[in-house]
Amino acid sequence: MNSPKKSGFKPLIILLLVFILPVAVAKVVLSLNLYNGGATNGGELLSPATSYASLSMENPKPREWQLLYLLPAHCDALCQDRLYILKQSHVALGREQSRVHTLIMLAENSDTSALTSHSFATVTANSAMVEMLNDQQMIIVDPLGSLVMRYPKVSGRSKQISQGKALVKDLRKMLKLSRVG
Predict the structure, then answer these.
(1) CB–CB of 70/136 below 8 Å?
(2) Phi, psi of 17 (to 5 degrees)
(3) What confidence tens digit (pLDDT) does each residue in 59-114 have?
(4) Is pTM beyond 0.70 here?
(5) Residue 6 has pLDDT above 80, yes or no
(6) What is the CA radius of gyration of the chain?
(7) CA distances (Å), origin 181, targets 81, 119, 124, 176
(8) Where are the alpha helices (DSSP H) in the chain?
(9) Which residues pair with 147 in a beta bridge?
């Protein structure tokens, strides 16, 4: 006998919802900034165009990884902690420490008396580099001379220690993935 024909409308709606609903939900989540990306870096990435060349400065250690820090006019407790973090971060790299050089950038008014207890290499910075390194931040530079990652000033010894750990973690990751330097 004849069986009644079923309407194909309901399966069509279900099929469309299966494909369209996830796209619509993803669009809403991204447009409302409800999703935080899975970044694993501890510092802030700098734009790829930022380099020694773009700052009109000659690379003091070409083909080498570098940690940069601008010595301020008055080296207070925060500055001393930053210098200590830089020293300990370099030691924490272990066998990879020969690939990384810590450079202290000097402006014309930098407090060089703070470096008496440390053995860092120093470089005179031009005005563009001084502006880039303002507010006691540390910057990682790759072997090609590009400024890659910045670590802004944080207050408090525990925050500085955790930032130093993040710096070492990021630097180890970059050294592992690096094909140069």
Answers:
(1) yes
(2) -65, -35
(3) 999 999 999 999 999 999 899 999 999 999 999 999 999 999 999 999 999 999 98
(4) yes
(5) no
(6) 25
(7) 28, 22, 23, 11
(8) 9-31, 77-92, 127-132, 157-177
(9) 141
Residue 104: name the closest of 81, 131, 138 by CA.
138
Label residue 8 by pLDDT band (50, 70, 90). confident
**Which residue bears the tokens 């050294």?**
175
Coil, helix or strand for 11?
A: helix
Q: Are strands 147-151 and 121-124 parallel, antiparallel or unpaired?
A: unpaired
Q: Cα angle vertex 52, ends 149, 179, to 5°?
A: 60
What residues are paired with 6 via a beta bridge?
none
pLDDT confidence of residue 74: 92
Q: CA-based angle 139:141:142, to the nearest 5?
A: 150
